[in-house]
Amino acid sequence: MASETQAGPAGAALPLPPMKWDAWGDPALAKELSADIKGLLAAALGVTGDATPGPAADEVVLHPSRIAADDLKALAAAVGETNVSAADADRLPRAGGKSTPDLLRRRSRDPQDAPDAVVLPGDEQEIAAVLALCAERRIAVVPFGGGTSVVGGLDPERGGLTAVISLDLRRLDRLHDLDETSGEAVLGAGLTGPAAEALLAERGYELGHYPQSFRYATLGGFAATRSSGQDSAGHGRFDEMVRGLRVVTPAGVLDLGRAPASAAGPDLRELFLGSEGTLGVITAVRLRVHPLPAVKAYEAWSLPDFATGSAALRAVEQAGTGPTVIRLSDEAETMVNLATTEQIGGAPAITGCLAVTVFEGTAEQVATRHRLTRDTLLAAGATSVGEAPARAWEHGRFNAPYLRDSLLSAGALCETLETATSWSRLPQLRTAVTEALTTALPGALVLCHISHVYPTGASLYFTVVAALGEDPLTRWAAAKRAAGDAIVTAGGTITHHHAVGADHRPWMSDEIGELGVRILRAVKAELDPAGILNPGKLIP
Amino acid sequence: MASETQAGPAGAALPLPPMKWDAWGDPALAKELSADIKGLLAAALGVTGDATPGPAADEVVLHPSRIAADDLKALAAAVGETNVSAADADRLPRAGGKSTPDLLRRRSRDPQDAPDAVVLPGDEQEIAAVLALCAERRIAVVPFGGGTSVVGGLDPERGGLTAVISLDLRRLDRLHDLDETSGEAVLGAGLTGPAAEALLAERGYELGHYPQSFRYATLGGFAATRSSGQDSAGHGRFDEMVRGLRVVTPAGVLDLGRAPASAAGPDLRELFLGSEGTLGVITAVRLRVHPLPAVKAYEAWSLPDFATGSAALRAVEQAGTGPTVIRLSDEAETMVNLATTEQIGGAPAITGCLAVTVFEGTAEQVATRHRLTRDTLLAAGATSVGEAPARAWEHGRFNAPYLRDSLLSAGALCETLETATSWSRLPQLRTAVTEALTTALPGALVLCHISHVYPTGASLYFTVVAALGEDPLTRWAAAKRAAGDAIVTAGGTITHHHAVGADHRPWMSDEIGELGVRILRAVKAELDPAGILNPGKLIP
User: Fold this and answer.
1) B460-488 pLDDT tens trace
2) Which of A111, A166, A500, B482 is the most buried (most CB within 10 A)?
3) CB-based burial label for B142 (10 Å; 0-12, 13-18, 19+)
4) Residue A174 — φ and ψ, nearest 5°?
5) Both ends of chain B: CA-CA distance in Å?
6) HEC readout, A314-383
7) Which residue has better confidence, A350 or B66?
8) Pairing assessment for the beta strands A205-206 and A184-188 based on DSSP bridges
9) Average pLDDT over every residue of B64-72
10) Which residues pair with A144 in a beta bridge?
11) Contact (CB<8Å) B253/A288
């Protein structure tokens, strides 16, 4: 995608990650804030000026690389000299993920943490060799896909070892096999969303996994973080698409998933889905794919309020009427047009709460699914507002994170967090999280939507916008802590699709209990006895 | 269910398991073989006489209980004196499962293995106390649900410890909670299928899990073995219904599943689904439930051959047309009417291969699902043969295992095995398994059906009928070994829904690799360091 065109640090020896080092995505796609948004920021948050601009890439100061010359030489012997670098220009773009705290840290002029070297293995044998020498030489390894983590999953922590490397998996970029009869494709873990879809589309197939990180994130990252895409109502979560996966660990290679379903003991795939690079390096995934849809249909809806809208989505999901996409913005998100990013801050397109539905498949499937969903939504109190808002949502579906960059530059802090729970607990969970955020950040705007539905419950996704003010890192950390505690108390999961990383690790004992944590530690001790794999993430 | 009426061993101190000690299910439901079947057995297999009858319950000789008096006293202190017994009449009905080898062993007049005592805990605290004292006193624990294992999952192995107890979970029999909004119910692990459905039906809800063991097996057993029911096309596998579960282990209690879906690390529920009592005792499950269907529709089909039929089922599943049940018998199974048990051995009802479809839901759902499925099947070469065969299948859906008892008494060995793979590998897998079985058991009838379909593949279920002959245990063991090896070589899973137990354990290294086995051992060492939980099962 954008790796050739982006403005990265000068002097890089290796291909750059697809995202700009200090911002979301491709700067060519970033937009100036409209007069509408600026007006909104001024009116709602008192944000009027521009924040101090951050340093240019060559002004950033990194802590010097701690990798020993001999270790670098050994790594070069394992993967080839052209695939290893300890240059700052290669280290900086892998210094972390893309949370707002990450971006704030990147914009600092103080010395920054970064991996001590970057390594680009070409195949499983090279990965095994790298893990073996890192275990022997006590070097931590942070697997790197697209670099889109928003939970600190890429923090270059050494975990008490001598150094830390970024293991960039971009060279694992092949379509290994497409079984059209079974609807299964084996794809390299380093393929980005668009690269994977392009390879499949050549053969008439689609994966259908479209998270907001789609343009940059990789299949291995989707698997390692239990990603969920915007089409999850139709195509499921990424973990539901995975039929098999290969994982290289310091203790050997795993090849899991012999059948579409099995009763042959615990499903070990589910240990590596969500393992976030702490248990092994996912190298290839065998995925359920489907023919490219022949037809798409769109319809947007107005619901009088969030409770009615939530009940309407529940009715659709529990009846199994089959929309590919279904999502509901709350009143605040609807009012600022957050779901239709081109119009953000402009006059509200509709009153109440906006819901979007999209339908895909054959002509008959689309007609049936659309009709049944429409009947269910109308019966549940929805009013059709036509195709346009649904198409506008789709047009801007990957653009919201760019907005964050521009807001940051304009002096506004913008961050998101998400959770999920059962339908019956959803209202209390939303209230609890909203109260926690607005208490911790007085005056902040808190917007919410439902974007993933299940027969028994749904996700809640919160967007928080506040004045950047003094010490935004500390203030956001306090707000995040309050929100996380509120989620746990209200019975939600600490993360529905952003993963754990470093940022959600404090709540893992609440999520799975102390004994659950001990299970993860036991598995890690077996697979990674030297503790080299992604220290400080996921497992407390 | 049948526990009050069945003819069990005299002198039992505890309530009996719901199945007769030496046969499948309730003897009142067992049927004499028809003249048609007897004719078929004589013609096809040369089976003409009756086998030697087995011993009556009071003629069975069990190896004496090895439990120490002091241990029995400690167990009684933990669960109450009336809930512990070392009497033979209580031990015999928990001596094993219901595979054909199990039944052959039960019919032996040689001394038989049995658990040294039976313990009926009433709640989690009592289970924790039992596990603690068993760990301290080195006593193995075999969790016992309905007793329907056909893979040796209940074998009373001591694993080098001093004794083995059967931990019968029948007292965990409550509906703890029904959340109608979310469609979730929390149910005790000891509830049988019918007992759970009765509790839900009182409130207008259904679980919809109908495996062949439905009448006797328990929810905990369904979870511990990754059971899959005959309605899996519509309602999914049991593991897909599980939203949460509680597990008591020697190391503490786990309460897993905070949300319908989560990205908070590996899904640890999936470690206990399929754990077969080796990692902990499942005490309660939170399950997805749905309103009782308002309408049901039935249609049966004739397909010219198995390949066409298999492609037709694939088309239905990949198009997502929504049948609740869809299954396909091969030519041989169709010819002997195995799918419609009332007519077994009679004149074939249809030519080619019989497929059965059932549709459930609201009137509109059923009409839509039926129409779309019908269109797809007709386009794929199916001919409708009306409702009757589909209703006949449903009428006899739980009865096939009873037939096995009668066949055994008539001198015929009848056993089943099952696997699953991707659609593209299905034909080769079927051929390989059939050849392995007919080579090992010359002259045997091998019948096959598909009863569980997925977008990327399906299950294959084989029924083998042969003359009992000399030393049937050894001959069946050789056939089973050949079939298992063939499954593994052809890329199938060693079991799609019967689980691993003792019988499939030799193939677990093929299934998940040596490193996968090491993971399971590491988890077990953490949770069950004394190795008391179900020794000799699942984990090599």
Assistant:
1) 999 999 999 999 999 999 999 999 999 99
2) A500
3) buried
4) -110, 150
5) 35
6) HHHHHHCCCCCEEEEECHHHHHCCCCCHHHCCCCCCCCCEEEEEEEEECHHHHHHHHHHHHHHHHHCCCE
7) B66
8) unpaired
9) 98
10) A168
11) no
Q: How many CB atoms lie within 10 A of CB B293?
A: 17
Cβ-defined contact of B527 to A520 (cutoff 8 Å): no
Instruction: Flag the least confident range among A267-271, A275-279, A396-400.
Output: A396-400
Q: Which residue has the tokens 């895909």?
A: A360
Nearest to B422 among A182, A274, A527 (CB): A182
Q: Which residue in B281, B416, B512, B528 has the most chain A C-beta atoms within 10 A of its own C-beta, making it the best mutation to test that interface?
A: B512
* pLDDT, tens only, B74-115: 999 999 999 999 999 999 999 999 999 999 999 999 999 999
**Is the predicted pLDDT of residue B2 greater than 50, yes or no?**
no
Question: Which residues from chain A sit within 8 angstroms of residue B517, using beta carbons?
Answer: none
Q: What is the average pLDDT across B187-206?
A: 98
Residue in chain B closest to A242 (alpha carbons) equals B456
Tokens of residue B392, six digits? 């006949």
Matching residue, tokens 């198995």: B306
CA distances from B106 to A300, B20, B97, B109, B119 (A): 65, 11, 10, 8, 21
pLDDT over threshold 60, residue A276 = yes
- Please report the beta strands in B344-431, taking only residues with DSSP state E, as ranges in sequence order: 353-361, 383-386, 412-422
Nearest to B256 among A269, A508, A516 (CB): A516
**B454: nearest CB among A227, A261, A425:** A261
Averaged pLDDT, B452-460: 98
Instruction: Nearest by CB to A271, from B253, B266, B275: name it.
Output: B266
* No. of helices (H) and no. of strands (E), chain B: 18, 19
Report how far residue A519's alpha carbon sits from residue B254's, in angstroms, rounded to the nearest whole number: 11
When pLDDT is cut at 50, 70 and 90, the band that residue B8 belongs to is: low
How many CB pairs below 8 Å do chains A and B form together?
Answer: 295
Closest CA relative to residue B446, chosen from B312, B306, B315, B308: B306
- The verdict on a CB contact (< 8 Å) between B181 and A424 is yes
**Residue A36 has what pLDDT?**
83
Measured between beta carbons, the chain A residues lying within 8 angstroms of B275 are: 265-266
Cβ contacts of A160 within 8 Å, gap of 6 or more: A531, A535
